[in-house]
Amino acid sequence: MSAARITAPRGTHDVLPDEQDHRRRIEDVARRVLEGAGYRRIETPTFEDTDLFARGVGGSTDVVQKEMYTFTDRGDRSLTLRPEGTAGVVRAYLEHGMHKLPQPVKLWYWGPFFRYERAQKGRQRQFWQLGIESLGSDDPSVDAEGIVLLHRILDALGVPGLRLRLGSLGTPAGREGYREALVAHLRAHEDRLSDEVRGRIDLNPLRAFDSDHPGTREVMETAPLLLDHLPAEDVEHFAEVRALLDAADVPYEVDPTLVRGLDYYSRTLFEFTSDALGAQSGVGGGGRYDGLAELVGGAATPGFGWGAGIERILLAQAGGAGDVVAPVTDLYVAWTDGHRRAAFALADAAAREGLTARLDQAPGRGLKGQMRRADRAGARIVAVVDDEGLRIDRGPGGRVDGLSVADVVAAARG
After folding, report:
1. What distance in Å separates the CA atoms of residue 239 and residue 249, rounded to the nearest whole number?
2. CA separation, residue 210 to residues 20, 24, 194, 262, 292 (Å)
3. Which helix (H) or strand (E) holds 390?
4. In what order do the strands lie in the sheet with 389-394?
5. What is the pTM of this model?
6. Exposure string for 164-194, b = 16+ CB within 10 A, e = fewer
7. Residues whose CB falls within 8 Å of the CB of residue 283, separated by 6 or more in sequence, listed in order
């Protein structure tokens, strides 16, 4: 009796070779746009001290309470697979003394993240994310630039039906009076709220705006709005962000009910959605988080960042449709029985000269079959090694017989 077949864990998926070109295009576009704006690549560990997320992301969030993959290692340390990127980047900024560098320090990243949530199309338990963090400046231009960069990336990738929702949370001190008004409103209608919202009225009342519970949604229709209660400094900051977006011709709609699932946000908040995604329409978003560094043990450091889901982008592109450029093979080497070693040496010589070279490696495949494989590989030149010697069978100059290895390599170099 054979053993039971093992499959990928629920909420994860294999990224197969046919999908790589689409993902590589997203990364290439992001690198060009972000590094052109002065952002530099950073990679942080896939797992971190659990306390980094408990303190940084917020103990009242669903991420910390329900969704983190946490384990105890052999040294009896509590570690967590990273559920988001910002806290780890801020930790690295503080740990490596990046505050001594010219500010703001602009960083971008690309990698896998992990959350235990209901697996569905475009929303997995292991998911890939592109993100940026800009640390060390509270200037409104940092916020506007970050939003413009994500808009530029999504637009270059052809994500259809893009919409930008924009809001402001103000500073924690500035929204304290509003918080009291909102808590009073929720307490007055407590019997109509969901158990979840009722349980965190004091911890995070703003998250009530994000509830899909019918009774809660009805209560929130008459709730006071934060944008009506912001102090002058926060109003001015938000107005300048909007003016800069207007100057960059990036359309947006102000959403006074916009909230995010993480506690560290302050002031500017935004989300890009795509009409192509239906109810789960979010593609990417983020905002300002000026108090996060202090929460994880550092000095006060203003910051702004965002994350965009790679699977969400691909899904919005209708399964990866888009202008993906197929890889080009400079030289494809076909061969007949008895000439494997000569064909191998030719492909190796071309590769050592910096060319992309492929050798047919299916024993017994005829020359016709090898030519079809060369077509699929996008080969510019096809060389054949057989009893007649070495020749170029297909290339810009047509068939050329009686060639040396150096002749073929030179022709492939173009």
Report:
1. 15
2. 34, 33, 12, 12, 22
3. strand 389-394
4. 357-359, 329-335, 379-386, 389-394
5. 0.81
6. bbbbbbbbeebbeebbebbeebbeebeebbb
7. 154, 159, 162, 272, 273, 274, 277, 308, 309, 312, 313, 316
Residue 187 lies in a domain: no
What DSSP letter does each residue of 274-343 carry, written as one string?
EGGGTTS-EEEEEEE-TTHHHHTTS----EEEEEEEHHHHHHHTTTT-S-PPPP-EEEEEEE-TT-HHHH
Tokens of 389: 């010697």
Q: From residue 14, how far is each of 18, 20, 21, 51 by CA, in Å?
A: 11, 11, 14, 30
Band the pLDDT of 262: cuts 50, 70, 90: low
In which domain, by residue range, is 409 found? 329-413
The yes-or-no verdict on residue 167 having pLDDT over 50 is yes
**Does residue 218 sit within a domain?**
no
Alpha carbon 142 to its chain centroid, in Å, reads: 19
Which residues are within 8 A (CB) of 413 and not within 5 positions of it... i.e. 6 or more apart?
330, 353, 355
Cβ atoms of 358 and 410 within 8 Å: the answer is no
Amino acid at the residue 283 = V
Whether the pLDDT of residue 102 is over 80: the answer is: yes
For range 80-106, the mean pLDDT: 95
CA–CA distance, 62 with 84 (Å, rounded to integer): 13
Res. 229 pLDDT band, cuts 50 70 90: confident
* Ramachandran quadrant class, 158 (left: phi over 0; alpha: psi -120 to 50; beta: rest): left
Cα 54 off chain centre by: 22
Q: Give CA–CA dist 271/145, Å, rounded.
A: 14
Residues 83-92: tens digit of each pLDDT: 999 999 999 9
Cβ contact 308:131 at 8 Å: yes
Beta bridge partners of 70: 80
Average pLDDT value for residue range 377-390: 91
For residue 364, the 8-state DSSP code is: T
Q: Is residue 67 part of a domain?
A: yes
Of the candidates 316, 344, 362, which is a domain's last residue?
Answer: 316
Q: pLDDT averaged over the chain?
A: 87
**Domain's final residue, options 257, 286, 316:** 316
Distance CA 331, CA 347 (A): 8
Prior bond to 224 cis, omega within 30? no
Distance CA(357)–CA(383), nearest Å, equals 10
Q: What are the start-end ranges of the E strands in 74-200?
A: 78-81, 105-114, 126-135, 162-168
Please report, as a single letter, which amino acid is at residue 194: S
